[in-house]
Amino acid sequence: MNGQLVGRAVGAASLALGITDILSGRRLGRNVGAGAAMGGRLFQIAGAREVATGIAGLMAPGSVGPLQWRLAGDLFDLAALGYIAAPGNPRRKTALLALGIVAGVTLIDLLAARKLAKVSNSRAEESEAPKQGGGLTERGRKAVAAYGDKLDRIEMGLEEDDRTPLDRPGVQAGTAGTGGENKVQDLLS
Fold first, then answer.
1. For residues 122, 127, 129 and 131, what is the CA-based torsion angle, rounded to 10 degrees?
2. Does residue 134 sit in helix, strand or coil?
3. What pTM does this model have?
4. What number of CA atoms fall less than 13 Å from residue 116's CA on the CB side?
5. Cα Rg of the chain, angstroms
6. Alpha-helical segments (H) within the chain
7. DSSP per residue over 162-177, as a string?
8. Which of 136, 134, 189, 149 lies closest to 165 in space, CA to CA?
9. Close Cβ partners of 13 (under 8 Å, ≥ 6 residues apart)
């Protein structure tokens, strides 16, 4: 499964969960024993966060950022549900079930984030890795080839020699020019 597909799947799931939390927040809050008012607000806030990360995940499916935001939100959700599932809660079993579901979703998000980070890192390594040819990148090989072509045209008399004195064969640093003066002085005069 490629990174884009993982990002889109998690983004779509986040969007769906967020909309569900927003629309059913009061009922979910009541069902876990947090109350319709306070628990409902908690679920609606979590839903808004899910919608935001879902949209971000769908807009940038290859980015690990939205998944990291989801993981941060999952940790908040786990902490809140852990508090709600305290022994004094008459709906503790339902709160523990919700806690288990969120823990499962957190595990899925963690695995997806790791997969996406691995795909992103391998893509970055491929684009930065030098191709065969003496450790040069493709761009470097092209520049060396173009310079070699220029030297060939100069030797054949097809192009004027516009190289600096130090670029010419047989000239050493500090001795460019007629009297061995400093190269900078020669260039300025």
1. 130
2. coil
3. 0.60
4. 25
5. 32
6. 3-31, 40-59, 65-84, 92-128, 138-155, 183-188
7. ---GGGSTTPPTT--S
8. 189
9. 54
Residue corresponding to tokens 């890795």: 129
Quick check: 77 and 46 in contact, CB under 8 A? yes
Cα separations in angstroms, 161 against 110, 141, 143, 152: 60, 22, 18, 11
Cα separation, 173 vs 161, whole angstroms: 19
Cα–Cα dist 45/96, whole Å: 20
Among 178, 177, 181, 180, residue whose Cα is nearest residue 164: 177
Q: Which two tokens stand for residue 161?
A: 């020699």
Residue 34, amino acid: A
Reading the block at residue 58, the tokens are 């769908």
Q: How far apart are CA 32 and CA 185, in angstroms?
A: 83
Query: What is the reported pLDDT for 123?
Result: 60
Q: Give residue 173's pLDDT.
A: 53
Residue 130 DSSP one-character state: P
Q: Please list the rounded mean pLDDT of every run of 10 residues in the chain (189 residues).
A: 80 92 93 90 93 91 85 92 92 94 92 82 57 62 78 78 63 51 50
